[in-house]
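Researcher: I'm comparing several assemblies side by side, and this is the next one on my list. It has 760 residues spread over two chains. Same procedure as the others: predict the full complex and return the structure.
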Amino acid sequence: MENSSVLIFGNNEYGLEIAKNVEHKYSNITIFGLDENEGDTNDFQFERFDLSDHWDELRQKHDMDNSIIFCALKDEAQNIFLTISLRSAFADTTIIALAKNNEDSNKLHMAGATKVIPIVETTANIITDMLKKPIVTQVLHGILYEDSDLRLIQVEVHNAECFGGEYPADINWSRDHGVLVLSIIHQDGTHEFIYSSKAKHNEITNGDIFVVVGYEQDIQEFKKFIGEEKCKR
Amino acid sequence: MQYFNRLLVNFAYFLNSSDAYQRKRRFFYNLLENDDYKYKKYFDLFMMILIFSSVSILIYEVKRDIHDYLNIFNSYIISFIFFVEYVLRLWIHSSISKVIINQDEYSDLLGRDFSLLYVVNKVFKDKMEYVLSLKAIIDLLAIIPFFHELRLLRIFILFRVFKLFRYAKSFSTFASVLATKRFEFFTLAMFAAIVIFVSSVLIYVMEANNPSSPIDTLYEAFYWSIVTISTVGYGDVVAVSPEGQFVAIIVILSGISVLAFTTSLFVSAFTEKLEDIKEAKVIQDVSKENETYIICGYESIAKEVAKKLINSKFNVLVLDEVIERVEDAKRDGLQALNYDPGQVESYKKLNINLSTQVKAILCLKEDDVENVYTALTVRSIDKNVKIMSLLMNSANRSKLIFSGVDEILHDKELVGLVAREYVGQPVAFEAIHAIRAEDSNIKIEEITITQRIVENISKVGELENVDFRVVLLGIHKRETKRFYFNPIDETLLEVGDVLFVIGNYIFIREFTKHLMVKSSKKAFDGK
């Protein structure tokens, strides 16, 4: 089931940037402010919260199992405390937490965050990539952040029989389908890159997820090919 | 006489404007005196080898006969090289042509006759300044065995060891540090000299007439005094009378104080100068590099960036006006200077060309005001150097752009973009980030098309990347500066184009090697 709402804890610049970047996908976005002196946000729903364990109201308002929570409080200790208390209350909710550094990142993982975005490391990685491989970084950013005609998407295989037992590495994706398949996530959760040595040993099966780069039209064609239409090979 | 003067002046102008002459002069100056000249270290090494060879031969021949060729090598060849070096140093020390030209212009200006006497005096004075310098005297003494075959003079070969001061920078540093305590050392020497003189005379007076005392002459008294004050005390010459022993007690106590004073002088001289020495070393190292990243400010993001650049074997220099952060950078194994990156003076002191020697200046202070200030400072010095800056508050973006920053990174915006990608395509997001992770086996690499490759592989279809299990993501064409995703087989390859490939790094390495081997094989077959 699609996630229904986004709950952002942290009425600060990070929280607002997150809200701006996910509003194209989610209409139900709420920003939660901890400080009583904080004003509300004009563009998004705003609520106050405290760190005591009273999440019933939240449960009543939102479908928590299908929501995404961002923990973006400025104070690291409060952010970790918030993450751990949300995880104890909502076992299956996706919680994405911001960490200043690797030390906090580890603690947030231990606190139960599904995904941690370490601010310092992420920024430093991007700076270093831009210095080391400027053109690659520019292209990747274009793809990743939808700033170019190219798109990076994930598609699930439903018509594995189309491939007739072929191995991923044997298919000329670019010539046959006009897209590049970068990696495959198998049903058992294992993850492999196309053309890696392991790709020779795994057949394509229904339920595999392909990570694909390509132009919109080619991707749509490819989506139909592996999932929606009968095999036309 | 006037005709001769005119001839001399014309010749001086000819030399001064001759490119060939000036080039040679500059070359020898760089080789002998310029520490930043890249070939000087090889010359210095060569000279040090000659010195050690020379001294080794001297030691060897004390108890053995040496072959004639070794003798010729030591007495003539090495000495001749040193002689040539001496003459070259004398030549480059001052310019005779410039003195003549200056005198000519000066005379013209004042409407006076050209004074040859003044020129001779000035040139003689300039050259004598070099001849009488300590280093030149050592150089001259090192050449002396060349002129004399007398065995006694061979000991002068040892002076060649002192020439090491010229070639080993650390020796010069050592001497310069001690030179800063000149006054203290002079005071110490005076104190020691007075103590030695007074104690020598005293012990002579007390002991010389005592038949059982070994001190019989003033020279022996002097020898005893030196041995005692230096706290060596060989025991071969000792005072026997109670008066003499009393003098000995005083001398021993004075000796301890002389030693303590000397030690403290050395320690304090080096402690005071240690930071300067380290700083000079950093500047010297940086000025020799051609691809340095200068990181301005050493805070959390800067630390991570520096760590990653160092791991990728890049040369990094940290500038920060806060001493604690500089110390922090040094502890992290980085070259760091306590210079304010917002001051023009800091870059002047670095003695580097920002355009040619610096790959990028990274303004990574977590303060927009400071970053704008630093960027403006750098841009005022150099229009071309690449500047990358952190942005902490989006409202200040325009100010950074205005100050000449080429790339701006806003951490909040980046977090927003990462969040956007993650909520949209979590699996794809993880996949692409796995490629970019430093410890991943799967890499995305750039392969630049060289002349060598393009002569033999003209089209994308001939690359055979699929055989190497390498994904060709696209090609960046140098001509159009555009990225072409999944190029068709007929796409032409041109020198300077960049292929973007993804795959296991071993496969990529093999593929790159294949491009070269294939190229050379074809070239070979073509012959």
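Model: For your comparison table: Residues 76-89 of chain A form the longest helix (14 residues).
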